[in-house]
Fold each of these.
Amino acid sequence: MSWGPKGDTNTMLYFDGVERPFYLYKNNTSGFFRTGLTAQNTAIISANSGKTGMRFSFTDMRNKDILPNTHMSRDNFNLRVNTSLAAFDFDFTANYTREDVKNRPALGDSQSNVGKNLMTLANSYNQEWLKNYQTSAGEYQPWNGNDQYNKNPYWDLYKNSNKSNKDIFRFTAKAVWNASKHFKVQGTLGTDMNNMTFEDYIARTTPGTAAGQLQLSTFKNRTYNAEILGLYNNYWGDIDFNGTIGGNLFRVDNKTTIITGTSQQLDDIIAIMNYTEQNVQEESYKKQINSIFGSASLGYKHIYYLEGTIRGDKSSTLPRGNNTYVYPSISASWVFSEYLQKKDVLTYGKLRASWARVGSDTDPYMLAPSYSTGKYSYGGGYVIGMINGSVMTNANLKPTMTSSFELGLEMKLFNNRMGIDFTYYNQNSTDQIIRLASSSASGYSYRLINAGKIQNRGVELSINGRAVQAGDFAWDLGLNFSKNNNKVIELVDGMDYFEIEKATWCNVSVGAEVGKNFGSIVGPDFVRTDDGKLVINASTGLPEVDSKLKTLGNASWDWTGGFYSTFTYKNFRLSAAFDVKVGADLYSMSMRSAYDTGKAMETLTGREEWYQSEEARLAANMNLDEWYAAGNVKGYVVPGVIKNADGTYRENDIAINPENFWRSAAKNAPGMFVYDNSYVKCREITFGYTFSQKNLGKYIKGLTLSFVARNPFIVWKNIPNIDPDSGYNTSGMGLEYGSLPSRRSYGFNVNLKF
Amino acid sequence: MKKLLYKVAGLMLIALPLAMTSCSDDYMEEINTDNTKTPEINPNAQLTTALLQTYGDFGMMDAYRCYVTGFTQYFAGGWNVSNYAGAVHADNDMMRPIWDELYSVAIKNLVDAIDKTADKPNLNAILRIHKVYLMSVLTDTYGDVPYFEAGRASVTATPKYDAQKDIYYDFFEELDKCIKQFDASKDLVTGDVSVFNGDVKSWMVYANSLRLRYAMRVSEVDKAKGQEEFEKAVNSGIGFIDSNAKNAYIRYIDGPFTLYDGARALDFRVNALGEMLYGQDSDSPTFVCATFFNMMKNTNDPRLYRICRHYLNPKRSAVKADDDWNVDVTDEVVAYENSPEGDLGEGKSYACNIGAAWWHNWVSAPSNDKIPTLEKLVQNYPEVGFDQSNYNARMMRPFLSIKFEKAECPGILMTAAEVSFLLAEAKVKGWNVTGTAEDYYKKGIREAMEMMNSYYNIPLITEQEITDYIAAQTLGTGEKAIENINTQAWIHHMMNPAEGWANLRRSGYPVLEDRYKYDRWPNDFTYDDENLTTPVRLKYPNLEAKYNKANYEAAIEKLGGTDDWHHRVWWDIAEDHVK
């Protein structure tokens, strides 16, 4: 909390028994962070002999994030061998990746979100003091009145820990039989095996988990893919023909085991047997899709093309009778530039149009309710059992069918110096399988249904070209623009909204509202007059509250775009890339918190007056009501109006403690912390030099040096204090809470070829 | 050779995809089966879950603590109860847990299990009785709520809100049918974690007693129905809970606190009401409200210092209610209070007033030497800070004794004392009940005290104390008798706050403190309700307006157009008394 009178030189006794002055610590949180470092090295060996080739690469990446005591490393080994034997070609790849992460940062309203916890520190509280995170007995040092929602970040990073290790194996084998000039058969087998362990340790005495907890999660994820494909091509005069027919089998088999130990017995032993209670939770995710498909394409004089495809899928996740679905597509294109005599202006031009239907399935096990036993045991022969999950299953699911229409124009101008690409698309899903939030009075928070209509349409445009070419100097430019509307057209049961994401304890959710783009930010607001003024309660001086839900903003971008520019002079190259995003709103819980705790500049208005008024009141030995009656109260007058008995309004003139207003706003009027999140950001600047061959001697085949700056600066943004890229969690659009900003990084690349 | 290869290739191209897609539906169903779950379950396991959730759900108990225990003026002074009930601050996220949690776990599973137990009359009846019990908590809390269509998403995802009257009328029918359905020679109930452990006779008696409760509940608004149902139950010959040995409660086990994570993982094994009142962290203990404290003090109620204790507890465990670091200094604090120095004057106490947090209306701590235990602790454990951070001032506030906050405390469903008070009131109302109101009233007080002795491991209330206290009570007649009976019922319902609040609203007694007479603390809490009188229901989850629109709007219409928590529920027509 940063409310209260001005800081001064008085001292205060702090939690660790040290007396310190009470004043403002500027840039308080920066001292917590360190400069991050990422190093990546790659080595590649390749060899060819006759029809046999081999390539091996190794990449090692190490990253230290800006948070202390965190670490990440990734090693990747990749081997590819290809060879030919008579009419057969073979191609094998094997890939192994190992990834180790220590202390993954927590997000959102997690009690361990470092950004959030540092942000809510009072300005008079130096974060350095938190380094005394433990007592002499190794227990949590209480520092904020045991507020379990804001844990000491040092404790979280040094005493608690989380570690993950991931092994990923990927194998593919492909055999092609070139049966004749026109016909070949191709078989592919692929598998992706992913084993991950995650160890999450919460030490005893951690607020909220005082008994201590160790959680070991094991993820065994397997994906298999097998495909056989017959390819035929031929031409007759001006007609080209390509045909394929094939079949595919896709299977996922994932298993998750979570072992949780609660109540740690001996400190500092991080092993599951050191816990008085252990429980195991198992989850499985299995599904299979079998497909057959075929396509035929015809071309005429390399000007007209027509292609048709058809695919049939059978998915294990859908019920008998509805589990097989067939969907076609058709597309045509016309290279109209072939009709031009002179091609120095329009070098190439193509118009394309396509229509397609795509069928899709859903997650496994959603057809019939299942039951599970509780994670915990009551003993005495009793079983804690319940209907599994909070999603109402559906025995009559149908596949989602999405039809889309697309129109495109592709042009190259001035002998390929300039390119234009334009696409319009309109996608409509009917009977979309949707996990619809429901009234919990139905017993389920969600139900899986084929519901409503969802529309997704938009345009994309990109233009790039070489603006200047003068001798050794060249200037390349590019820009892109896209606009997308993704909205629910219709839902069921008269519903006009469903929640997708929720800001816990703030009464704010983000969801889909019928007729509007995805991402409506919905929450309560103060009572307002028709022209938007706050209606002030004549007895409290605070705005009247209204718990009805209103739409406070929308988290979809109106449009997004980007541009890049590259200068090349001889061996030097300088390039920069920018991102533009416009029109999305963001509910900033960080800003909400800044106002709630009196850290935002605006909360100073009326504060000094209030404290002077309070001092005067105490000196006069009057209580607040008497002080009001005497007309002596000074402070913050909330801009707004008071309703008169006759229904008209008068300007508010009641002075109050600004703290009371901002804390009420934080609770009751989240719309005050919804900001336009539009921005222009510089994503990357690169400056490089490629050495010419003659300077390199006979052993080195190539050398490029470059300096790269990522996220070097924000050109423009509307939202105060927050990085517009901030996210609440991995999926939460429209929400933000104490997220660590995107990292600015500077790097040096050396690319050496032997 | 080449031709043969073509044929092979051609065959392969046709055969392989066919083989792939010919996977039978049976095979696909096999893949779509979750081996970690089961398609069928013994409904006894669902009964266990639904029973345990009654008091085992930490999230739901938070709503009890923050609103119900404050509205009833049992407790005051903790941050949570002051912030919500004390400030009359309606926070949707705090009002919705009772609704969300019960419907989405217990009611859903009970509905499902009831449908599947037509061939198990005993289990079926127990499931239905407990559904009645939980639905009464829901309708008493919110008013009109989904009942007939609730928990049946497979039939409707937008259940309509039923009138509370229809719900209560159905309770009577359900309880009737269940009682008739019991047959000890039929199925054995194995999932019953109540004290009855599947005993059919006990469940019949308990169900018959619930009829008394619900008959009395509707008796203000629907006199004829109340009397008719009450007399039917009394004269049914089934009997009712007429001794503590027949009490209905849920058995919880000893274990560390489950907290919110536990509630999310449906860990309902410990009594979460006790856990919640102990506090989710070491700085959130529960203090007894001055209303409650003074009521017991002014009547020389021997329960006073069984319920209220003074603790020094800066280092208390956040894992479970621990006796070690909640150092009990009650005797020393009381001695100090009775000394001239500690005496606050006539009619004043150290207990927290409604609406005030423990640090408001500041009371200074006595010097350490006045509380010898404190002095010793400060000397022996200087690092703990017993006299730091105002822990010694906090000690002056009467806390709720941690004996009521233990993980294994029973979860009270219905007791002999409650039945006695119901019979006493019926008698006062002139209904056809044998015995005298005075006898039932005194029997109820005795049962309430004896139950406290046997369930909460408190220093026993002696026989002498009980006799003396009862001897000092006179029931009176008419309105005074109703007040006396329901004041005793209120004290008794402390550990069943839902019933305490419902009976308080139904009867209008005891006479509680007028919230308007007490301060607001705008620097600590948000006062966003003009009307400071105690709310008489909780508001519906506001997302109902989105997900169950038509039905929600119809319900709101009946409330007068807004989801007003000062709008009384159907059975609540008696005047509420405050002084």
Amino acid sequence: MSRAIRRIYVEDEVADHPRTARIVSRFPRAEVISCGRYGEVFNRRGQDFRLQKRRPALILARKHRGRVLETPAGYGIGGERNYYFSHMLNCVYDCRYCFLQGMFRSANYVLFVNYEDFLDDIDATLARVGESWFFSGYDCDSLAFEPITRFADTFLPFFAERPRAWLELRTKSVQARALTEREPIPNCVVAFSFTPEAVHGELERGVPSVRRRIEVAADLQRRGWKIGLRFDPLLHTESYRADYGELFEQVFAAVDPRALHSISLGVFRLPKSYFERAWRLYPEEPLFAGPQSEHDGMISLPARDERDLFDFCRDQLGRWVSSEVFHLCSAPASR
Amino acid sequence: MTRIVCALPAEARPIVAHLGLEPAGPRLYRGDGVELIVSGVGPARARAAVERAAPAEGREPRAWINVGIAGHRDAEIGSPRLAYKIVDAASGRAWYPPATFAPPCPGAEVRTVLDVERAFAGDELFEMEAAGFYPAALRCASAELVQVLKIVSDGRVERAERLSAAGVSELIEGNLPVLEALRRELDALAAELAARTAVPDGFDDFLKCWHFTVTQSRQLERLLRRLATLGRPAGPRGFDGAKSAAAVLAGLRGRI
């Protein structure tokens, strides 16, 4: 993945940041370009996400405000107080159902290198409201870029010392070294997202195979890490029963269902404006062309298909796990 | 279609000859898939040239390239640079042309100035059009399709005053392969964009048979595109009994 970075934009404000120097040194062949604020490069009007996805640039920036935010309603895995934070915008993978392609005009990766400010804000949130969940991996994959970002490497020791702060790392990657090289942290859940092989092959470009991700999840579980499974979005296909049935068999052949922390299920849904933009980017994509329903500004599958798919998956998963670990995700996002 | 903007006739001449362009108006040349405009010197003229051409933009996405000479303190004369940052020296505003392809030559920061640069303090290229051309072209095309290609023509040793028209043409001519490579990349991007927005098959046939309002014609286009994606292309034949465009649209919706 790192081989693809040929341009790095560096905000003047973080030009002297040690993390900037380390990351830039990883890409000796990249053009390094100074910029005032990342907004001068990222997400300007008249940019094309799909074209930029061919060759994304990396933007190193400082996140000034809004570092820790309340999650949208319906986003959570049982905790009372839920927050998310994004050290990075955009994902190294290219999943056709992902809301990021509808949310951003630019496919460049923005990495906020001022991790310490995020950590301060998490501490401030803890002091203000008490025990809370902090979700990473909302606007990016938590671990996919780890060799470059060393995000987990920095954040895990911090959470290890704060048992009232629960961390979810959400990922489709197999970059687990930051986890395997340390003792498990009881207040951290490593949540792996899955779709069936058939969907993976069609809609998830650049994502490691289902088999490999299952292996990594199982390995982490054996090492004592809390593992979550995220079947979100559930995607309706003609063969969804066979596809999801096979996926669940695959997963639970390796992952111990009794030791699972949580499972969340969420059907495919996008805010209408995101859906429209994604459809304009990928008009040849059947996912955006088929039957849809619109409700409260969200586009999703027709209600009956949605219900059938969801009920089937919930019932199937019930063969392995009890309902206490289930969480329905109805937040306006799909990653 | 690519639109090339040059400031000087001497910059344009080798490109016109190489691409076999024909005169198509004052300071305008046209050929197979290419149009070249000679803007005159300075950002205001470059901007005006783009704005004059812009109304002729149709639905088809086009690439825009500003080609010209520039000064650099010590870069090799005749070496090409693709702008990755453009700074308007007068206002301080900056733009960052994205490169979603393998650039055919090294990149550089390009600083647009109003007078010939003599000091060459930094590592930038100095020239006189990019900051006028670029924001104007951005109003016509997606940022990925707008690029600025500069050829180093002078510096601290080789002074700009000693440049002749023939010398300028020679510098551009020596970099025609770079320009061609850039054009190919941008044409491929434009083609991808064009494929996304192409009028779906059957669209015009429907318009001939029923009266669609502007909104309805947009809905028609969307529905036909979706049906084509689903492998169910539609034509007016299946709607012989439909009394109105609204009835046709309802019928098409029912097929999804």
